[in-house]
Every structure is written in C-alpha cells, then in structure tokens.
Design goal:
Elements lengths: L37 H11 L3 E6 L2 E8 L5 E6 L5 E6 L4 E5 L8 E9 L5 E8 L4 E5 L4 E10 L2 E10 L5 E7 L11 H4 L7 E5 L16 H16 L4 E11 L1 H16 L7 E5 L6 H16 L3 H19 L4 H9 L7 H4 L8 H10 L5 H5 L5 E6 L7 H14 L5 E6 L26 H14 L3 H4 L7
C-alpha cells in the first residue's frame, strides 16, 4: 500500500514511455509473487509476533509492526509525539532506536520485548540513551490468524488481527495503495488494537503470498478483492458483520470507494459500514497521473510551455488507451512530437512497447471515483496533504467535498493537512529520514481515531470492551 515511500502509481506513471512498474519481480499471471527464503520467512514471522500497541506513558502509545516498504523491519509510531522510527535488530528481542526515522545512531533508546507464558507479546522495556528505563505494557491485546479467500480464480492471503476479548468485533479491511503491496504495513496494522477493532490486511494480488497479477489488474478488480475480504469477515462469528469498515491509502481511495459500492450491491446494503481514506485523489486516474507528470517535468527542468506540450501528449495517449485503441495508435501519435525539444528529455531511451502497461491504462485511466462516492450512504473520513505532488489537493478537496455533500453520508469530513503524499511532517524538499522529516503529520491520527470511535459508539462497542484503549 502507498503508505510512506511509494508514489501514487508506482512506476506506472512512466507507462507511456518505457514502463517499469516496479523494482520487484513480476509474478506470472495466476501465481503468487516471489517466495521468500526460509530464513527470511522465519525472521518475518518472528517480527510479526512483536506487532501491537505498547503504552509507554499516558498519552504515549507506541504502535509497532513490520513494514515491508522499509525492508520488513519493525517500525514504530509514537501516537503521543508522532515520532516514526525503525527498530534495528540487535538480537531476537532487542532493538536499537535512533534519533531519526531510519538511522540506528545516534541512539535514542534500546527496546527489549518481553513475552508472557503463552509466548505472546506482553510488554517492552524502553531504555533511553541517558540510562532511564520504562516498561510499556501491551494495550488492546490482539491475536492473529492467517486467512485465505478468493475473488474468482484469484486466491488472496493475509493476516487477521482480532481483539483478544469475547464477542463479535467491529473490523477494518486495509485497502492497498499502488505497486506490489503486502500485508505488512507497520503501525497501520496495529493502531486499531487500542480501539478494539479487528484488522484484515492481505497481500495484494500478485504480491507476497497472494495469487493474481496486480500489474494488469483494473481498479474494479482490485475492489473485488477487497469485497471478497469483507465477505470473509461477514461469515465469522467473532466479527460484527454490520460494522466492517475500509481504510485505504493513495490508490486505495479509488479502490475503497469502488469496493464500498460493489459490496453494497453484491453483499448487503450495509456490508461496508464506513470508509477512511488517506491521500486518495478526487480526480480521475488520468488527471492524477498527469499531475504527477507535471511535477516530474518540473524537476527535469522543462519550461512551462514544454511541460504543457508533454502533458497534452500524455493526455492524448491516455485517451487512446481508454477508448480501446491499440498501442500502435499511440506510437503514431508520438511521431508527431518526436522532434520537439522536450521529447528526448522525457523519453531519453525512446518509447518502448509494453502491452501489459497498455492493458493497465486501458482498464484504468478513465476511472473517476467521485460519481460512485456520491452514491454512498456511509460515514467517510478523507485526509489530503496540501503539498502532495502525487495528488492535486487543490482540485481534489472541493471535488470530494462536493461528492460527499451530494451523498447520503450521515458523517463526513475532508481534512487538508500540511503534508505531502507520505504524511511525514516537514519540508517535502528534505529527504524522509532527515531530523526534520522523522515525524508523522499532526492532526491525522487524532481525526482518524475520533472518526472510528464514533463508529464504535454507534453500537456501544467501547462499553462492551470495558474501555479498551480509552485515553
């Protein structure tokens, strides 16, 4: 899922040039992605056992989980300070935490995890670099279960985190961003623990242990995968079938909206009870990618006139794909601009044919989720970044607000925060991981929690759980 580092449509933004969808191996259609070596799988399994929320002090909950986008390492979000840190392994249960997001040094603290008699995570010890030591117990303990479900001929696999308390629990399905996203998305998996909400996070088709092929999938097909996950949850006695929500990031905005509508039609009107979106676009796929390209051209040093011409060419190519034209039609179009001053700068190696890329564009460039959003009658929480170079927030925010105002949603909000696509605070021109770029943007997590807790209050889940995770 596009959570921290990926662009909106990883690599696919270059599809009309020499498409490189990702740096990951491309799985064959109908098959799962590359299988990790046994040692890597054992490490992955061990790190997953430490996932959870640990209360360091009142107002200082640490949401921790392995994050594939950061090498599968444990990543921590301090929900009090909003610091984000990679936990660097020293041995099987001891980790170093640096003073910036990715570095192990200078040392901020040493973290030691402790298990209970059943082998479950019970607490961690936080030993500050100055010698102070604190114990942080687990808050909102959850158990995990590996699950498998199908959408047509595609088998999908993931992990379900369920509150370790009696009763049927509300749940959230995490909706992927672009690229070969897997189930391991760090603190996004665990932040719901303290609210008593189950979380189903699965490997995107063609990634991790799931079958299928994300590179040629339509967003409606990906939405069908999400609906299949919702369907699975609705069959379980430990899940409240009437309170299953979706939480999507980036590409997951389009997919989440489409999935909510699909589920209402194919499962039940209330199959998806709410929708949360972070950095999802309010414009079409084509217009969103063209916004990305403008940023790319600016960084390449193109003039405004050159950028306008290059964008016009790209828009015409996308229109051909959406109309079902063959790739050769775009090649003919390219010949009309090949002698322009910008063409060789944008396409230094020329345009190379890629039928898989063309299939992706044919299925997706015309998709606009706003007409579908207008048809939803569920609570929606949508967060955007003012400095986002992947999503044109200035255009998206009013479109999303207008769609929700025209819908029958009983509770909706559009938040525009001081952030780029990563939702890492600080100047977007500064690399992520710098001392000024190691903290989550203020406002997002509080708004998400307040929105989610309102969904729980609807059915008095907080009271039934005895105040689990209450601040």
């Amino acid at each position: 899922m596009t959570h921290l580092l990926r662009g909106l449509l990883l690599g696919a933004t270059l599809a009309i040039a020499a498409p490189v969808h990702s740096q990951h191996a491309t799985p064959a259609p109908g098959h799962a992605g590359p299988v990790a070596a046994p040692a890597a799988m054992a490490r992955q399994t061990r790190l997953r056992t430490f996932a959870g929320v640990y209360r360091l002090a009142p107002g200082r909950d640490l949401a921790i989980g392995p994050f594939d986008e950061l090498g599968g390492q444990l990543v921590m979000l301090d929900l009090g300070t909003l610091d984000i840190r990679v936990l660097h392994e020293r041995d099987d249960s001891t980790f170093s935490v640096g003073t910036t997001l990715m570095a192990a040094a200078p040392l901020m603290a040493t973290v030691v995890f402790h298990r209970d008699t059943k082998g479950r995570p019970a607490s961690l010890t936080w030993r500050g670099a100055g010698g102070d030591s604190q114990t942080a117990p687990v808050v909102g303990r959850a158990r995990t279960e590996q699950v498998e479900f199908r959408n047509g001929d595609v088998t999908l696999r993931g992990t379900l985190r369920i509150p370790d308390t009696p009763g049927a629990h509300p749940a959230v399905v995490l909706v992927h961003g672009s690229g070969p996203a897997t189930r391991d998305v760090g603190y996004f998996n665990t932040v719901y623990d303290r609210m008593g909400v189950a979380v189903l996070s699965f490997d995107k088709r063609g990634a991790g242990a799931s079958g299928g092929d994300w590179e040629v999938a339509g967003l409606n097909e990906l939405a069908g995968d999400v609906v299949a996950a919702v369907k699975l949850l609705r069959t379980r006695s430990d899940i409240d079938a009437h309170h299953v929500g979706l939480d999507g990031s980036s590409q997951g905005g389009w997919v989440g909206v489409l999935a909510a509508k699909q589920a209402a039609v194919t499962l039940a009107p209330d199959a998806v009870a709410w929708l949360s979106v972070r950095v999802g676009s309010g414009t079409s796929v084509a217009e969103t990618v063209l916004w990305e390209r403008r940023g790319q051209y600016r960084r390449q040093g193109l003039t405004v006139a050159q950028s306008d011409s290059a964008v016009a060419f790209a828009r015409a190519v996308y229109a051909l794909a959406a109309a079902g034209a063959p790739w050769e039609a775009s090649d003919s179009l390219a010949r009309t601009v090949i002698t322009t001053g910008w063409f060789r700068r944008v396409y230094p190696d020329g345009r190379r044919r890629d039928d898989r890329s063309w299939t992706f564009w044919r299925k997706n460039v015309a998709i606009d989720a706003m007409p579908t959003l207008r048809q939803l009658a569920i609570p929606v929480n949508w967060a955007l970044g003012r400095a986002d170079e992947n999503v044109e927030t200035r255009a998206s925010a009013p479109l999303i607000a207008a769609a929700l105002a025209a819908s029958s949603s009983p509770d909706w909000a559009v938040h525009v925060l001081s952030a780029d696509h990563s939702f890492i605070a600080g100047d977007p021109a500064t690399p992520i991981g710098d001392v000024t770029r190691s903290r989550s943007v203020a406002g997002y997590w509080d708004a998400l929690e307040a929105f989610t807790r309102r969904r729980l209050e609807d059915v008095k889940h907080i009271e039934r759980l005895g105040g689990v995770g209450a601040k």
